[in-house]
Amino acid sequence: MSNDEFRAAMSRLAAGVVLVTAYEPALAADGPRGEDVGMTATAFMSVSLDPPLVMVSLREGSRMDDLLDEQPLWGVSVLSQSQRHIAGRFAMKGRISDRLLFEDIPYVRGEASGALLVGGSLATLECRTEQRVTAGDHVLVIGRVLTARVPSEDGGPLTYFKGRYRHLG
Predict the structure, then answer these.
(1) Nearest to 18 by CA among 76, 104, 93, 101
(2) d(CA 40, CA 24)
């Protein structure tokens, strides 16, 4: 089986779309200064109700993988179909900085994680990493859910199917 065959088969599995976020602290000569980092993910799922656990799959060595290896607190925003532009923006590879990507997006900073949570999302979660499992070229990050909110019940979910963002009709 080739990588293309595997990718084609898996593209037939519809998935919800989330934005995973974390705050990357940094120390500068004039004091603490950090940056908010975000990543679009479709490999995200609930793992356990008791305790409340979720999992996200990250490409090994990606910026988010490196950050969550050091920073145990992170956030998740479950994107609605009207937030497709946010998913596309944070799916770009090779970005040096995410600073400008958050500029025109409404958000709140999570009280438990310090991560940015997107306004208008269908749901938001704040998590603390419990376990990291290497799986091939990815790392499965299992997080304990610290907060779960449903800020907006309007709109349908943003989904990813056959290589494109979709919404339920």
Answers:
(1) 76
(2) 17
What pLDDT, in 10s, does the model give residues 28-75? 555 556 889 999 999 999 999 999 999 999 999 998 999 999 999 999
Q: How far is CA 7 from CA 12, 57, 62, 113, in A?
A: 9, 16, 19, 33
What global pTM score does this model have?
0.92
Total number of residues shown for the chain: 169
Name all contacts of 146-150 with Cβ < 8 Å and 24+ positions apart: 146/112, 146/113, 147/110, 147/111, 147/112, 147/113, 148/52, 148/123, 148/124, 149/123, 149/124, 149/125, 150/122, 150/123
Select from 118, 115, 127 the least CA-distant residue to 152.
118
Q: For 119-154, what is each residue's pLDDT tens digit?
A: 999 999 999 999 999 999 999 999 999 999 998 777
State whether residue 131 is helix, strand or coil. strand
Tell which residue, 109, 21, 32, has the closest CA to residue 67: 21
Strands (DSSP E) found in the chain: 15-16, 18-24, 27-28, 31-32, 35-41, 44-48, 53-59, 73-78, 107-109, 116-118, 123-135, 138-149, 158-161, 164-167
